[in-house]
Amino acid sequence: QVQLVESGGGLVQAGGSLRLSCAASGTIFNIQAVTWYRQAPGKQRELVALIRRSGSTNVVDSVKGRFTISRDNAKNTVYLQMNSLKPEDTAIYYCNVQVLTKPYDYWGQGTQVTVSS
User: Fold this and answer.
1) Which of 18, 16, 20, 14 shows the shortest CA–CA distance to 35?
2) d(CA 67, CA 99)
3) H/E element holding 21?
4) What is the distance between the alpha carbons of residues 75 and 20, in angstroms, rounded to a whole number?
């Protein structure tokens, strides 16, 4: 019914920047929060950044000062601005939208971020 699409990933050298986007194909009601997760090869899934309904944000310690989560309400899109990228940031990045009703959250298919040294 609703499709979440992440985009903006790619190959970048260490120190470079990327901006990921999370957009829905349709309107999602009762959004409580939007989060970015990532999963690197051989590692468990990790929550990277979160933006709440209020607009307040949090990022994981390992990306503080480098990553910023934001939203454009007019476009119903959430972004993850990633600066000063490091090889350890290499992962598939997933967007998750938390809602109050079934299915309670939505997941995208992910976008690959590869940072070369």
Assistant:
1) 20
2) 24
3) strand 18-24
4) 14
Per the DSSP assignment, residues forming a β-bridge with 31 are 99
Q: What is the pLDDT of residues 40-97, one digit of tens each?
A: 999 999 999 999 999 999 999 999 999 999 999 888 899 999 999 999 999 999 999 9
Residues 82, 19: contact at Cβ < 8 Å? yes
Side-chain half-sphere CA neighbours of 61 within 13 A? 0
SS3 of residue 113 by DSSP? strand
The span from the CA of 62 to the CA of 85, in Å, is 11
Contacts of 57 (CB under 8 A, 6+ apart): 49, 50, 51, 68, 69, 70
Strand partners, 35: 50, 96
80: nearest Cα among 111, 49, 54, 107: 49
